[in-house]
Amino acid sequence: MSNLRCVGVVLALLVSLPALADDPPTVRVEGTAGRVEIEGGEVKVKRSERSVTVTTRAGATKVTNGAKYFCGKGDKLNLADKVINGSATVAIYAEADCKITITDFTVNAAVAVEASGNALVTITDSVLNGGRTAIIASGNAKIILSEVTINAPRGIEASGNAKVEFTEGTLTGKEAIVVDGNAKAKLVDVAILGKQIKKGNGRISVSE
Q1: What is the pLDDT of residues 21-32, one digit of tens each?
Q2: DSSP character for 41?
């Protein structure tokens, strides 16, 4: 659309602009860094942790740049049998009360999966390769993994009140798992190759 140009990825927009008439069209631009330029017309910007919603008079379009798959408030996604290669940011991102199920996925990205808010992410029979971190869980998010192979410099990172439950799999990384704040991780029958790091009141439970 003519009055929205996305250059790079998303800038953290913290601008309060005039409200529009009732029920205007909406544009959502998703990403983690970079810049969005808006030209002309009245616009209203709403920012969440990983997305920017831009409301404008000119019509609706959706521009995605950053997360390959984005799951937000009220969303329910089922993803199966796919390969994601080369994402420079986050391949799969879940926020708010999103519920997402991932089955038979192979992900190669800077961050394979990130969840925040009250998101619930269930991952089964998948391979997650992170250039930096394979899995990040924060806020009150919960991530459930079963029969998953994880490879990354930092395999799993959990903070806040996040919970991670991992059954039957392999977790490999210089820092295999890092748990901070009040986060909890429960690993059952998981081969762990790397350091287990606890900070704050973080808890890691490992059993066979």
Answers
A1: 444 444 444 444
A2: S
**Whole-Å CA distances, 37 to 57, 58, 84:** 16, 15, 28
Measuring CA to CA, which residue among 73, 67, 126, 118 is closest to residue 93?
67
On whether both 40 and 81 belong to a single domain, the answer is: no
Contact between 41 and 21 under an 8 Å Cβ cutoff? The reply is no
What does pTM read for this prediction? 0.72
- The domain in which residue 59 lies consists of 4-64
pLDDT more than 70, % of the chain: 67
Kindly give, in sequence order, each residue whose CB lies less than 8 Å from that of residue 4, ignoring residues fewer than 6 positions away: 27, 29, 36, 38, 39, 54, 56, 58, 61, 63
- pLDDT at residue 130 greater than cutoff 80: yes
Residue 168 has which token pair?
A: 């039957």
Burial class, 63, CB count within 10 angstroms (exposed 0-12 / middle 13-18 / buried 19+): middle
Task: Measure the CA angle with vertex 86, ends 54 and 171; round to 5°.
Answer: 110
Rounded to an integer, what is the distance from CA 68 to the centroid of its chain? 10
Question: Within this chain, do residues 57 and 88 fall inside the same structural domain, yes or no?
Answer: no
Shared-domain flag, residues 49 and 86? no
